[in-house]
Amino acid sequence: QVLLQESGPGLLKPSQTLSLTCTVSGDSITTDLTYWSWIRQAPGKGLEWIGLIHYSGTIDYSPSLKSRASISRDASKNQFTLQLRSVTVADTAVYYCTRARPWALCEFWGQGTQVTVSS
Length: 119
Hints:
Elements: E1 3-7, E2 11-12, E3 18-25, E4 35-41, E5 47-54, E6 59-61, E7 69-74, E8 79-84, E9 93-101, E10 104-109, E11 113-117
């Protein structure tokens, strides 16, 4: 069974940088044809895809967040991370990490972590 666990600070002030880590067990983030995403859901809104890192290390971002987001990984720890710079109240959301395969979109999810941006 593949398990994903998000971790990071739950409360930030505007203009700070959000840093989240997803720790994966039950699979390697370098397994062929695996894609590791960050997704968020703001209060009262739908799911928003932030970006993903391929098993190969290639990274894709949502155009709307590309200027502020950075995704990286530490294969030795089987973790991948999200940094989101210059956060605002609009970045308040539950953040999820997920695993996808070409034939199974986002088949495994972390439990999600609440991030609140408030002055």
